[in-house]
Amino acid sequence: MTKHLGVGIGGSSVAMILAVLAMIAVLAVPLLHSSYDENLSRSLLMYAAMSLGWNFIGGYTGYVSFGNVVFFGLGAYVAAVVSARGVPDVFVAIPLAAAVAALFAGLVGLPLLRLRGHYFGIATLAVALAVKELIENVDALGGGSGLAVHQSSVFITYFYAMWLVCAVCLLCTWLIARSKLGYAMVAIRENEEAAAALGIDPTRYKVFAWMISGAMTASAGATFAFANGNIDPATVFGIDYNIFPIAMVILGGIGTVAGPLLGAFLLTAFNEVLWGHFPALHNLFFGLAIVLIVFFVPRGVMSLFGLHGGRRGFIRYFQAYRV
Amino acid sequence: MSAEYLRIRNVGVRFGGLQALSDVSFDVARGSVVGLIGPNGSGKTTLMSVIAGALRPSSGSVEFKARSLTGIPTSKVSRLGIARTFQIVAPFANLSVRENVAVGAMFGRRRRTTSAAFASADELLEFVGLARVARKSASDLTIPDRKRLEVAKALALDPEVILLDEVMAGLNAVEVDEALELLHRIHDGGKTLIVVEHLMKAILSISQRVIVLAEGKKIAQGSPQAVIRDPEVIKAYLGVRYAKRQARTASSDRDFPV
């Protein structure tokens, strides 16, 4: 029964092994006793979790969200509020943030996921901007200057918490991709009308996908808030946290299990190297790199491992929701 | 006789200023094969969409086993036992042929586990003759195979009724015979079929009853033999030459079974 990995679900097992090895390697980073390496690795893990989250809605379901940062921000604010209420525990904040984000995704998704293609993308962007504006104007949440997050654990806890969040996201992706939910999402991406004709209720599964997407992203946001010590709207609803995960999923392999994680690791590391060498112009080179990737490895590094999609997979992918 | 199975009641569909269907009614008996013919733009596919729940009629209703389907979404209609194929074939291009069929088996009338769905998909691929290409990507199939895949996906839902929208269009003579043979086998398995087809040979060979649409209205219904002699059908769809040719062959040698 395990032999039903076809062309569309899962992807290469080589990539999966690489991803697991990368996760194990990252777990050894604290042994280096270097706070720089710890911070960088936490950043890798954070982007990986966000990419895995975005992949559910943008990759598997084919609904490109330009507003997933809203979940990151919500997660961070849930963590800040929880810590201020005398529960400065990241492991309490994470499930709570995930639950709040899933609920929000469910409520907003019901109307938004009736839109298709670009319209959905624009609407999600609008939601992210609106929530940011809203929080900036709520004094109880610190307005534009944000909130402090009360840390009670030793700092390395937040590194392990981020590792755990990322590992759980990877495991969930692996499990869901092979499940009925995974097939429902892919069927919707490939042809929503045909999916409905096969008994799949598109709205229901699209909302599920976005709820998972939101929960994963918010978990990363909550952990980020604790590690950062303070948060403000401009940071946690920032453009970087919105766009980077999308670029990372595309680089790694859209709609695959391991691709987003590999893409996040590669791109975060690459960005760090650019920072080091071109402090002023790193964004220019980073943008250029993304353009080159889209041109030459459009199906992501997963395509280099063969087993995924096919030559024209990427073109088909975009045709799938151009309707 | 058929009153309690599938009834199409005064169905009308309006797209803005265009009346695509008006006041179409007919009954479909359990286990029968109904042919639906008519010129391009006469509303055949629109009617299929209404029955499948993909399109809400502006007026009238569809009843299946004494239950109104109006307002019930496609995904639920397909779980109630009415499956459809798409005229413009709609495979999940990035999934394998086997996965395409398994998705139907997972979410159809019997909600199967993934492993049970793949087992059922393998049986169906054998049945429709696609077992040899099961692992191929659905986008790599030839046209006749894509049509077969459409049929296999519909069958995967364990439907009682299958709406077949031009599954023979674009096939050559040999492929049409093969497709007809497949439809006969599906019918023999107890399914009710509604067949939209331009190919008169196919319609005459498989249908027990034929409904003729023209400009959104039902202009005739009856046995295939009666319908092809109906002057109004000849005028609106078949053409005088077809009628003459039929008359000639019918007097010497019948080219369709009764």
Topology:
The complex is a heterodimer of chains A (323) and B (258).
Chain A: H1 13-27, H2 35-60, H3 69-84, H4 90-112, H5 117-136, E1 147-148, H6 156-177, H7 180-190, H8 192-197, H9 202-228, E2 230-231, H10 233-236, H11 239-252, H12 259-277, H13 282-296, H14 313-320
Antiparallel strand pairs in A: 1-2
Chain B: E1 6-15, E2 18-28, E3 33-37, H1 44-52, E4 59-64, E5 67-68, H2 74-80, E6 82-84, H3 97-107, H4 114-128, H5 143-156, E7 161-165, H6 173-188, E8 192-196, H7 200-206, E9 209-214, E10 217-222, H8 224-227, H9 231-238, H10 240-252
Parallel strand pairs in B: 3-8, 3-9, 6-7, 7-8
Antiparallel strand pairs in B: 1-2, 1-4, 4-5, 9-10
Helix pairs in contact in B: 3-4, 3-5, 4-5
Explain what the structure shows.
The complex is a heterodimer of chains A (323) and B (258). Chain A has 323 residues and is mostly helical. Chain A is 70% helix and 1% strand. Chain A contains 14 helices and two strands; from the N terminus they run αααααβααααβααααα. Chain A has a two-stranded antiparallel sheet. In chain A, helix 2 (35-60) packs antiparallel against helix 9, helix 4 runs antiparallel to helix 9 and helix 6 (156-177) packs antiparallel against helix 9 (202-228). Chain A is globular. Chain A starts with 12 loop residues before the first helix and ends with a helix. Chain B starts with 5 loop residues before the first strand and ends in a 6-residue tail after the last helix. With 258 residues, chain B is an alpha/beta fold. Chain B is built from ten helices and ten strands. The A-B interface holds A 1, 4, 6-9, 178-180, 183-184, 186-187, 190-191, 193-202, 255, 309-310, 313, 316-317, 320 and B 52, 54, 73-76, 78-79, 83-84, 86, 90-96, 98-99, 102-104, 106-109, 113-115, 118, 135, 137, 139, 153, 156-157.
